[in-house]
Amino acid sequence: MKIYIPIYICLLFLCSNIKLYAQVDTSSLEKQNDSTEIMYYIIEGDTIAREMINLEEVYLLKKVKFMSEKDRRRYLILRRKTRKVYPYAKLAAERLITMTDRLKTIEKKSDRKKYTRLVQNYIEGEFSDKLKKLTHSEGQILVKLIHRQTGRTAYDLVKELRTGWRAFWYNTTANLFEISLKEEYRPFEENEDFLIEDILERSFRDGILERQPPAFAIDYLDLVDYWNNKTVNK
């Protein structure tokens, strides 16, 4: 849903400086965009602002309500962990897109393997020290968010970038720490994932996290309605 704001007040100020004509030759109109993406019409050197301004879609979010103090603490802890690991998932998606686009321009199979290996080593070097410091729950949230941002599970990414055996080994090792690399992000099925999506949307709105579109469509308003109805019908 787009939000439009009339700018009649601005027009009142402009009218004192603009020459109005009963008929205007449309061929003399020149459309221009300024840095705010507001459309203007130039008429013989005068500027007339358009009546409506297109703004980006935003959600008006209600204040989070909790059934108990325990639920409130759970949400705050999840928020801290989500905000901590989301930048890693976002970065992983960016690196993957860059690598995929680059591979499309490389014809020789040997060169493709060499480039993939370089990217793998770079990503591992960039992430390894930071990821070692994550807790078990933070690691599992990161796995979910990687699926949200790339559309593929961490297991599938490892399998694609390395080998099936290494992916199996990575998943087995992760399971020792109660982390599954095959975990998917399912906000319509898992309540924790819904809370994560809510945390992300509020963090994007407040400028705490930088928005990156998910790999698959997530309608936040439909998601909220779904969980609200599910709570009422309990």
TrEMBL record:
Pfam families: DUF4294. It comes from the Bacteria. This is DUF4294 domain-containing protein. It comes from Aequorivita aurantiaca.
